[in-house]
Amino acid sequence: MTYLSLSRAARLAGVTRAELQRRIRRGEIATFEGAVAVEDLLRAYPAVSLTNDDALERVERIKREALPKLNAGETVLPSPEVFLSRLRGLSETLAERIAANELADALLDQVGARLAGLATQPPEQLSAGLREIHDWFDDARRQLALQPAPDGHAQLLAKDTFLRIMAANVKLIPSGHDFFVEGNESILEASVRAGLKLSYGCSSGNCGDCKVRLISGETRKIRDHDYVISEREKSMGYLLSCSQTAVTDLVIEAAEALSVDDLPQQEIRASLRKLERLSPDLIALNIQTPRTHTLRFMAGQRAHLTLEDGATRELSIASCPCNGRNLWFYVRRQDDAFSEHVFNSLHPGHLVTVTGPQGDFVLIEDAPEPAILIAFGDGIAPIKSLIEHAVSIDLIESFHLYWDTTYPDGHHQAHWGRALKDALDNFSFTPLMSGQPEDVIAVVRADHSDPGGRRYYLAGPAELVQRAAVLLRDQGIEKARIKLEHTDT
């Protein structure tokens, strides 16, 4: 029996991983060691075809439109060299299968000839059982020759072959996580895009922090690097993930940051790329780090921003870790030096020191249950980061955003929430203007009659967040299912 990883199974069926997770949790699809059998996938999705990609196309479009791009000139096609290598590898596999089929056909011909010889013997010398076997075999061969078209299993294998040309699947050990390498991107770039947290530093081949060990598969160097890998390490399969792309499906051994404690503290001299005035008292900052020093953080975490005059403030990151070079922050006017500088004298091009990350308000990625995200006021910043990350990794079954604010600037990211709601079947957005946690939780309860099987993420001023958490626990929600972030400092 052939088994597929969840990522590959979702692609072949033309659905999202979240949809596949939902059906697995309902018991509609069985799994074995985190993989799905081809037969079970075909039973759940019998209409597998090379064009059944509507759900995937929708998700990819959302990622392109709602999330920042990694590289402006990025293409979805592999380079000619990688394309040729993949075709060569598939040709060799196809040749082996053709040879094996020819041997099997020859063996069947011999069996058929022997059965035919037995059939010519006098009836008294041929048992009824042998005659029955001969007739069955002859009929089976005729039926095989009359097959009009490939069955679902063959169509799925054909689609898998096509997808292997366009993208290679990479499996990480020991975690078991997997992702796709597409176009001309490096293994490291693909892992970051997929929301995984491999170790890296400069991402340009100088530091060696992104070194991984190739267990199986073929890679190709796409850029030179100054870091020297010893001959002994080369013989053991070590390579720099920032400088290699996947030619075939890979299995690599690599360390991942699985908790906030696994991420190093970083200090990066970045520059202000864009400043957007959302209201007289609220500004959005887009800070870009150097190409050789991307901030490694988990969605929902915070960072300290220090301006050139020394003014500093800790703020929640309002963007996805899948693009650690372009960081977004929302700055609310306060009576301090940081606000004075940001609102009156800060301009694009000014240097900003980013120090972090801090905080443990992060997505629980091994819990694909539906998620309820509640933002009070400026708590939308870490919540937005969590949602963009959830869209990027495509593992959460469904999620519903409730944003309650009484600020005059209102729901300044409502267009973003509506865009996600319009394009994703598993995302809902409810804007509120109450200022009372009791009202917000009442709306949540009215929308969801089964609150116990969900995860809850709450962010905003401490008083509102804590009151809302108490209300949830009063409704029987386990404390372990509720994560809190106090955005006021």
Strand and helix map with partners:
Layout: E1 3-5, H1 6-13, H2 17-25, E2 35-37, H3 38-44, H4 54-66, H5 80-119, H6 128-145, H7 152-166, E3 167-173, E4 178-182, H8 187-193, E5 211-216, E6 219-221, H9 231-235, E7 238-240, E8 244-246, E9 250-253, E10 266-279, E11 282-288, E12 302-307, E13 312-316, E14 326-332, H10 337-344, E15 351-358, E16 371-376, H11 380-393, E17 399-404, H12 414-423, E18 427-432, H13 437-447, E19 455-460, H14 462-474, E20 482-486
Please state the CA-atom Rg, rounded to the nearest Å: 28 Å
pLDDT under 50 segments (min length 5)? 50-56, 65-75
Mean pLDDT score, rounded? Answer: 84
Q: Span from first to last CA?
A: 56 Å
Major sheet characteristics? 6 strands, antiparallel
Please state the structural category. Answer: alpha/beta
Spatial strand sequence of the major β-sheet: 13-12-15-10-11-14
Give the beta-strand count: 20
- Portion of residues within helices: 25-40%
β-strand percent reads 15-25%
Number of helices: 14
Shape by Cα distribution: globular
Walk me through this protein's architecture.
The structure is a single chain. Helices cover 36% and strands 23% of the residues. With 489 residues, it is an alpha/beta fold. The strands form five sheets. The protein has a six-stranded antiparallel sheet. It has a five-stranded mixed sheet with strand order 4-3-9-5-7. Strand 16, helix 11 and strand 17 form a beta-alpha-beta unit. It is globular and about 105 Å long.
Tell me briefly what this model is:
With 489 residues, the chain is an alpha/beta fold. Helices cover 36% and strands 23% of the residues. A six-stranded antiparallel sheet has the order 13-12-15-10-11-14. The chain has a five-stranded mixed sheet with strand order 4-3-9-5-7.
